[in-house]
Specification:
The protein is α/β, with parallel strands linked by helices. It has 2 domains: 37 residues; 231 residues, Rossmann fold (3-Layer(aba) Sandwich). Helix content is 43%, strand content 19%. It has 12 helices and 8 strands. Strands 1, 2, 3, 4, 5, 6, 7 and 8 form an 8-stranded mixed beta sheet that branches. Helix 1 packs across helix 5.
Length: 274
């Protein structure tokens, strides 16, 4: 009789735990869906969802509303418009932003500083929607540190690896991401995917090589997703990946052809710090 009662109690506890977990997941999914579909996002950014699949991508990375999350080089804030509001209540969005006040005069008037300042201005102007969203200066080779060791739940980077690879910065960037993450933390990567041995100057990266570099930095490869794949991308263009939208580096030359291809074929990789 006691064994039967004990088994029934264990079953009840397990059922309650499962129900609670299901409810939490449903809440998180609804919150993410709301962030993606929010009017807070600019229409020009939402229009690219067909290529960038933000809801599916962030679900694959298992981003939670309570996470402390670092996004490296947010640029114009395409993902920040989703992530910062999503994390505003219970989490913390941190942008690994460009150096907005470099010592070199030319750099102070350059692209990175201007983009970084514009992003910081955006954060201030929308503080009511973004909670305690902040920035940290992350601008190799002068600034690699993303924050205190073991302080973040997630580090994400979207289409930036080729920039670091071209300068020889990729390995220390991965090492820095490993240091800042807590044990069990996620390192999520989306990057233009090229053929094996591809030159990073084309904007494309070799997926197997990216996985190897991350593992060398200490990460454990969890899974890849094809959510951002594009089989129409032949990856052999005059201006590299920038030939395709949204850049359209050739401007009107064969514009309709490249619009029909769409944005690049992309790897979507998830790693964890054990």
């Amino acid at each position: 009789m006691k064994k039967t009662m004990l088994a029934a109690s264990v079953l009840l506890v397990s059922t309650c735990s499962l129900s609670l977990s299901t409810a939490v997941n449903a809440h998180e999914n609804h919150a993410l869906e709301a962030a993606v579909s929010s009017d807070f996002r600019q229409a020009k950014n939402s229009a690219r969802d067909q290529y960038r699949h933000p809801e599916q991508t962030l679900s694959f990375f298992d981003i939670k509303p309570s996470d402390t999350l670092i996004e490296l080089w947010p640029g114009g804030g395409w993902y920040a418009e989703i992530l910062a509001p999503y994390l505003a209540k219970d989490g913390h969005y941190i942008a690994g932003n460009f150096d907005t006040n470099p010592s070199d005069e030319k750099a102070r008037n350059g692209y990175r500083a201007k983009v970084g300042k514009k992003f910081e201005k955006w954060l201030k102007e929308h503080q009511a929607s973004l909670g305690n969203a902040t920035t940290v200066t992350f601008d190799p080779p002068n600034y690699y540190t993303m924050g205190p060791d073991n302080s973040a739940d997630v580090v994400l980077t979207f289409r930036n690896l080729h920039n670091w690879a071209m300068k020889g910065y990729l390995e220390p960037v991965f090492e820095s991401a490993y240091k800042v993450l807590k044990s069990g933390g996620t390192f999520g990567i989306v990057e233009h995917r090229g053929e094996p041995g591809v030159d990073a100057k084309t904007g494309y990266m070799d997926q197997a090589e990216v996985i190897k570099l991350a593992e060398n930095a200490g990460f454990t490869f969890v899974a890849s997703s094809e959510v951002n794949a594009n089989p129409k991308d032949s990856k052999d263009y005059p201006k590299g990946v920038w030939t395709l939208p949204p850049r359209l580096a050739l401007e009107d030359q064969d514009k309709e052809k490249y619009l029909a291809i769409g944005e690049s074929d992309r790897m979507t990789l998830k790693f964890v710090k054990k």
